[in-house]
Structures are given as structure tokens and as C-alpha cells.
Design a protein that fits this description.
Helix content is about 25%, strand content about 20%. By secondary structure, it is of the alpha+beta class. It has 2 helices and 3 strands, in the order αβββα. It has a domain of about 35 residues.
Length: about 90
Amino acid sequence: MEDPRQLFKIGDMVKAKIIEIKEGKIEIINNTNITEVRGDDLMKSVVFDKAYKGKKEFLLDRLFVYVGHIPLSDLAESVGVKTNIKGEIIRV
């Protein structure tokens, strides 16, 4: 079972990100693949597989990648890997 204090911290982080999205500080770009990350020591931009707002290269300083939310952990569970109530693999 996960530590409830950790879930609270994660929940607060998610709430903060939702507020930032509503305020326009975070932009969500759906159905787009990143084909390249550019920069020297730090990331400066990404290149998309198709144009977004008329261009393929997008300048940024942070990147959050989200790919679905349905855990496919049946195989892991079948060999004894521990999961939480949502089916997410957990460390024991």
C-alpha cells in the first residue's frame, strides 16, 4: 500500500499544474510526437513531427511528457510484481 502522505503530495502537485494550465502557463499539445530535442547543456527546443502553430520547432525550457493513464500491468501482476489498487507498479 502506498504511503498516504506521498499521495497527498502528488495530489497537491497535480492541483498546482491544473492551476498553471488554466492560467496559460502550461500549454498542452495533443497528438504530436517529438522527433528531436535541441540544446547544448540544457534543452532549448523540441522538433515536432508535424507543424504546431505554423512551425515544427518549439522553443521551451521545460517538457512534461504524458502518455495515457491506463496501466497495463496484468503480466507484471501475474509474475508477482506488486501493484496498488489502480494497477500501477509500486516499490515494496
